[in-house]
Design brief:
This protein has 122 residues and is mainly alpha-helical. The protein has two domains: 63 residues, Helicase, Ruva Protein, domain 3 (Orthogonal Bundle); 44 residues, Ribosomal protein S13/S18, C-terminal domain (30s ribosomal protein s13, domain 2). Helices cover 48% and strands 5% of the residues. Strands 1-2 form a two-stranded antiparallel sheet. It is elongated, with a radius of gyration of 21 Å. The protein starts with a strand and ends in an 11-residue tail after the last helix.
Amino acid sequence: MARVAGVDIPNNKKVEIGLTYIFGVGRPTARKIISDTGISSLKRVGELTEQEIADIRHYLDTNVKVEGDLRKEIGLSIKRLIEINCYRGVRHRNNLPCRGQKTRSNARTRRGLAGKRGIKKK
């Protein structure tokens, strides 16, 4: 397994798919990394040479914010919204959707389990 940005990438995956295992790298970014480093898109991660893996690491270090740095930036952005008491910050603080979704009948994943409601004991 190749280790890039603190993440083990499976050997049997194609390089484009394998790079998406890194937090902050999606398919478009993975394609850009492959094209800029000159790696064949048909290769699998297990077939990469040490030089190609080093090229990917260098590209990620210089051009893309990934893993811990990205998580820290996202967390600080959310914390800033909460501190300034804007609408989105209040929604984050109350564990409700921030992007305008309805919550009367949906948003179960954000609000948590419904629990027992409307059941009377005899």
